[in-house]
């Protein structure tokens, strides 16, 4: 079953050099998990024991191993394909948050009706038809689940639209929107992803939008990298909100008021290693006068993962990765850790809430920081 | 037979027939600049000898940093030279040489370590390249052979060698640079010879010491010099307390992920063809492979696709010194066969 | 009671302590309530997750009723209160997803009277069938909802005790949905057998506590436990650890 995966991910090129496992944030805290051994086992017995290996659900699909692999083995795709195979055999990972996330994502395949848009703040302007569509993703849903974590994902969606408004754009926000299917896809449920994707593509086609802007990098990479694999050319442009805003800020369309403070930026896996967007968020932060951006030692392509992904398997190990990242951020002397991904924000905020950190650091989403600084 | 070659010749502002490299001019020259030969680790004067064993052993004035060329005043070296060899009137000239054959021996350059961001070269002060280490450990180098760390000038006792930095890596150079395993063992041995407290770790993918007695050399390094060989490529390097680099790796023998704190890290960078070789081979019409190495036929390993042009050494592909010497002999004899005719 | 076309398809998560006793009594007493009600006993209402509620909706039920013990009466100290939060969260998620939050009913009551349970279900079913009457919910037109219906969501089929797969289920819009080819899991078969309240009659041989028939307004937990014990032999709850003593020891 994994034979085809081995061919597709070029796993047979493996040199057994150990870079993947040495790079893996999970392996450092969890000796049972090793990307190298996962591939090794599959190479030795393509139809054998890797499916029994529950550690296949421990992978964060952060892509650090793939980025460093000297043989260009695509570990993320390997993990995903193994999960598809594992699912076909009836095993599954342990969903985090008692499966709430995956459940509301699946709910959107058929049972859900038109999305409620009452979360849109009174001061932001959206339109019914237009060239630019803002894809909100799960932000309104997360708003319900993560209220107690001090993470306002609805606020993130609103601040994103607010910035787009400031740039002179009234984006379409559609009630026909569905989950992008990122999490089902990465937990090996491509069918749910395809159902959701078809509905989204239909919705965007109907709206007539030519550019779709995302606040969540996961939705963004799904549209940018995964949907085209299944549905061909999409027929519209996609951009992360930082990519959308950066040229407009450079052109002077948005002005920011003076803000005191030192911030550091956390590169999300999806936006960074997957989509290669490193500079735009930094350009945005640099546009705020008075705001100083300091870099963590592990930044850009070397950025440490926020420690959790696809709402599967969140253990002590994941918490330790998150605390490590928070400590790294605090060590820069920054008072705020700015993330480019709402999910990174959620995961890190969760760890900050539970863990005993020597130094506290505030965690904020990039559009929240920017929208707060909007001014003359 | 080849027609002729035009050879631009830079003015060195020193008469080669008179200069005896006594060094009086260097002693008095007021301008100091980073020394390119010591990969920027030491300084040299504006008038300098490229390196001690260089041939011809003649001083050169670096036009870009010389005070006289910048301000029109100085000429201290001219005053100091007892031989009267300094000549500011020299001009660049083009020399035309009639040649019967050309031998390409453009050698190698090393890969820029900055794209390997996980190793933090440039960001972590005590991560250096193999070439920098060679200069530090060299008795005639900028530190007189003592391994002072770049961060604080303290002696580095614990040194880690990172093999295959950019080599055998499809993101960078997918070939084996072939010389790193051996020179790293040599470097580690030198380290112990200069400092009895030195502890060396060599992190390797596979030790490719393929040559006469090479395996024995490795064993000697392990037994007599206490070098520790760990099979596992370094995944990333972090900067620890007091600028001690921390290496993260998987020991693939024990299957354990571990970290090691050391005083200094030496990156065995991938070797590339010389950057000028690209332009030279284009001018000459010599075929190169996708890496820029000169293509030669297995049956006639010295000959290029152009008659009368031969190649030897690293410009043809990775090889060590003995092999380069053998290739040079072969290329020279091929060239002379062409010029003098077969007997 | 015959199943009529248009009767809402109700899934009830019922706490095994007070509410399930009430459901049992409803059966014993022959109380009438909505016939298309599937009772899923849960050890404690606190065990009900948002995911279970949403998956039930995904699998085509019209309404979900969660019955928990009355405030202060939870056998496990606060399961009913945490359940209240779960229900609140699920309702908000349903609202965002464009599903009427009224499709999720919640009851906090320690009333073990069968009539209470019957009226609870009937009232809820009535509300749900009104929602069904106006084509499912306030926002989504029925035919749009049905487009691509049945795709996805079969994740871990058979492991959850929600929904009524394998039987012809009536969707909210009242149209027949094709039965899925999935084999009915064993758990469901058991549930289906106990679906009709009338069929919930216990074997005559089973000993019934004398005081069960007309319980006081608030049944004593010890009494109820005996009922629970007769229901299934696997239920082993130490009689000494009543809720009241536990509370006392805490103080």
Write a structural description:
The complex is a heterotrimer of chains A (376), B (343) and C (251). By secondary structure, chain A is of the alpha/beta class. Chain A has 3 domains: 2-88, Alpha-helical ferredoxin (Fumarate Reductase Iron-sulfur Protein, Chain B, domain 2), CATH 1.10.1060; 97-246, no CATH class; 252-373, Rossmann fold. Helix content of chain A is 46%, strand content 8%. Chain A has helices at 3-9, 19-23, 25-29, 35-44, 64-68, 75-88, 100-107, 139-145, 153-166, 182-186, 190-207, 217-231, 241-250, 270-274, 279-286, 316-331, 342-354, 366-373, and strands at residues 132-135, 211-214, 237-240, 261-266, 291-294, 336-339, 362-365. In chain A, 60% of the residues are buried. Chain B is built from 8 helices and 18 strands. In chain B, the strands form 7 sheets. In chain B, strands 9-16-10-11-12 form a 5-stranded parallel beta sheet. Chain B has a 3-stranded antiparallel beta sheet with strand order 13-14-15, with no helix packed on it. Chain B is globular and about 65 Å long. The mean pLDDT of chain B is 92. Chain B is α/β, with parallel strands linked by helices and 343 residues long. Chain C is α/β, with parallel strands linked by helices and 251 residues long. Chain C has a domain at 10-135: Rossmann fold, CATH 3.40.50. A 4-stranded parallel beta sheet of chain C has the order 2-1-3-4, sandwiched between helices. In chain C, helix 1 (18-28) crosses helix 4 and helix 2 crosses helix 3 (79-96). Chains A and C meet through helix 7, helix 8 and helix 11 of A and helix 2, helix 3 and helix 5 of C.
Oligomer: heterotrimer
Binned, the helix content of chain B reads 10-25%
Question: What can be said about the biggest beta sheet of chain B?
Answer: 5 strands, parallel
* Helix fraction bin of chain A: 40-55%
The radius of gyration computed from the alpha-carbon positions of chain A, rounded to a whole number of angstroms, is 20 Å
Radius of gyration over C-alpha positions of chain B, nearest whole angstrom: 23 Å
Question: pLDDT average of chain B, as an integer?
Answer: 92
Record field, number of beta strands of chain B: 18
Largest interface, with Cβ-Cβ < 8 Å?
A: A-C, 34 and 32 residues
- What gross morphology of chain B would you assign? globular
Strand content of chain B: 15-25%
User: What is the total tally of β strands of chain A?
Assistant: 7
